[in-house]
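re: that complex we talked abt at group meeting.

here r the seqs, copy pasted straight from the sheet so there may be weird spacing, ignore it
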Amino acid sequence: MVNYGGDEVSALVLDIGTSTIRAGYAGDDTPKAVIPTCYGYTEEQGDGDVSMEGSEEGAQLPKKKTTLYVGQNGPSVWRAGMHVAHPVQNSLITDFAPIPAIVSHAFKEVMRTDPSEHPVLVTEPAWNTTENRERMAEIMFEEFDVPAFYIANTGVLNAFAAGKGSALVIDVGQSTASVTPIVDGFVLRKGLSHSGLPQLIYAHAKHTLTTPQPGRPGIQLIPHQLIANRQTVDATFPPKFTLREDRVPGVTDSWRSWYEAREVDEWVQSVAGVLDQGWNDQAAAQRGPRHYEFPTGYNTYFGAERFNVGELYFSHTPQLVASNPNLPKTIPALISSALTACDPDIRQVLLGNIVLTGGGSMLSGFADRLSAELQRNVSHVKIHAPGNPSERRYGGWLGGSILASLGTFHQLWISKEEWKEHGKAIIGQRCK
Amino acid sequence: MSSGVSVSDDCITSYQELMKRKHKYVVYGLNPTFTEIVVLKTSQDADYELFIKEFPNDQCRWAVYDLEYEADDGGKRNKVVFVYWSPGQSSIKQRMVYSASNNALKARLGVALEIQGNDEEDLEFVNVLEKAKRNSR
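got the structure back, here u go
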């Protein structure tokens, strides 16, 4: 057991998602740093000096003549020839190389703190691999020299934060939707089910926007960084804007798709919705349209199509299924495969204790629709959906923040000394 | 994952007393500094409706209750029910710490049947009775 001076110690909490990294002090209600997980990079041609443009954000990967641009001024700032890469896919870190630079940016540049002086609690998805969590421990101990480390499961954190030892946690993130059965504080692995459903929603929304629809042309998704000026136009009128022609040649495909993903995501978040009682053409038409303006100045009202997008979380049309045999599972399908794997007695407990979390679940009508879908088949369903947006969006981070702030949690931390003595094996023993 | 919160010896003593029919129910909670689980109340009152009044709508609690009921064969049965109460109006910090300490208390007491209560409906007598009967089979 290690002593860090009683309650004086302030641990750091790090929650790495597919779209953003959340970092902050244990005991706080919200993370201090929320930065993009993806990063920009440029590669040097020839053997000239390595560029350190924007030196504060720029950090170098050793052995490669590559400059990284991370944080709020990373991918979102246009730079000639800058590519964008995504080190986290489906909530799993797939490329560890840039992780130290990104985490360092969050801790040192944004939070202005020195991680070598604070225990660090990191969160992980239920389907994280042993190699991944051990690698994370290694990075924290070896590269950040942290005095202590712990890795906690986001599903369990969300269940606990909802006041439940047993729960069915439905987490709708940027790239993955997951259903995690938790019994007495432990993940029931056989029931864990997840799919890339949010990616289908994204693809569908992008297709809807960029292809001509009755009453409007296909919409151009042009980054504001490439627009020199624009004029205000009335809704549905063609946009009037001037491109920054000088920048166009320096645009890479990966930067453009990063931008498009962001714009589409923003459109989904501000315009899309879910019909709370199931699909119905009339109900979709009756809901008021919503206005959205793109960086080109083009703006219009979106009617039924905004519900088409959200509907994909819950049902797929026969045509869609026929055209794509590998469709990711819908939310109801994920729930039913999770429940099928559990004993009937546990099923009832889980259905009475559903916890809804993740930014994607905040689409208007989502919780009501989920409840309607489930009540069609089961008699006793209860859904806990935090009304507070930051609680829903950062549920995992917040749970970790509370846990890591406890004086009594000290006995669970893995200290640097223990890491040195026992190595990787201690991670699996301590963090269950 | 646990909170590291400890269980005071009083919790176990009072539970053993309940098993000897000295109490009808015992209410537990975290001390104000969130370091230890302590006994908040013991009672000999058998009235279930009084028992559920022990659970405030904005505070988490634990309790054990010696449930007496008539089995389907007409015989009298006793079942100790462990209740974890964490209502939606309690603070997220309370919910988090209580949830992360739940296993420690359950393990120290050695209870078999847990009722997870997040609202009053979860603790209604019929629901608890049904779970107790199912658990005794």
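couple things i noticed - The first strand of chain A starts at residue 12 and ends at 16. Chain A touches chain B at residues 152-153, 156-157, 159-166, 184-185, 345, 349, 352-353, 382, 384, 391, 398-399, 402-403, 406-412, 431-432 (CB under 8 Å).
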